[in-house]
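Structure Section — protein described below
Tokens — whole-number codes for backbone shape
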Amino acid sequence: MTPRDRADACPGAVQTHLAADGRLARVRVPGGLLTGAQLLVLAQAAVDLADGALELTSRGNVQLRGLADDAPPELARRLHDAGLLPSEAHETARNVVASVLSGRSGGLVDVRPVVQALDAGLVADPSLAALPGRFLVTVDDGRGDVHGLAGDAGLVAVAPDALALVLAGHGSGLRAAPAQAHDLLLRAARAFLDERAAQGSQAWRVHELDDGPARVAARLGSSVVPLAVPAADPPVGSLEQGDGRVALVGLVPLGRLTTAALDVLVQVTAALGSEVQLTPWRSVAVPDLPDEYVDDVATALHSAGLVFDAASPWAQVTACAGLPGCAKSRADVRADAARAVATGTLPVPGPQHWAGCERRCGRPAGSVDVLATGQGYEIGAG
């Protein structure tokens, strides 16, 4: 068991975090899906209340930085009106990632209805407001894109009519049809809270409990079993949808959606009446594009900073906030990482996370650390 001496304090839209550059708010977006109207609300809030940009997180959520001390109530009002804050009590518990473009391109099951039912069930249960902000739910449509993201409770489609429950990467032996699968996740979340209480723990994650996956499974009347799920690379670029239309998936360098990029996304969703999907890889999927729109939208988004080449160095680089946004940081890691990309001097090949201190905030699993020391960077630390 990993000992925790305090409750999880992940920020939300109401429970904000005071950073060096002002208050930071994190808005949960279950499944990463935003309507055009919701995207407009977030973009306008970034301009009116924060520093003008939206930051994408490794869980497909968004952050607003640089909020004044009196801004959170106004932000909460706007989010509530847009349907982005259905329950203040549950705001930090709604951590749900889902397969990218599910129901549009690839996969065995369209998991969008599963995510919607899960979110509704979560906010309807007062007890689930106690879920830690680090507790992660994954809903994989069978292609294996989000299954490997170290979720605490998850579903993975194993057939067009069946999804299997996963607990911290372990199979549970439990399956359900798509229409009932969300209930498995709700039961698993309650079982985690019950087991945590039984162990007298403040654990944030299932694996932090003593024999966590097995004991949570036992509370569900089952046991852990092997479950092999092939992994899929995150999509980047242009993908043809099942209906003949096209989706564009663009990488957002360092996860920062600028005002210019937001303006393009808002215009596109308004013109098409469509939506966007934020991904756990700090990219944005723009679906449902008629073929004649694709080149113009790709050009506009590329001009605004998005990257559509999977071979780009930006596909390998993430970073924490760094200076000046975080007082604990020893360097302006974002500027240093951007300079290394521009000059072709990244210190290592492959995924790497530039961090300003040992907390390594936002570090994706499998990344090599590029850790600021105050006298340069230490590679592979920790």
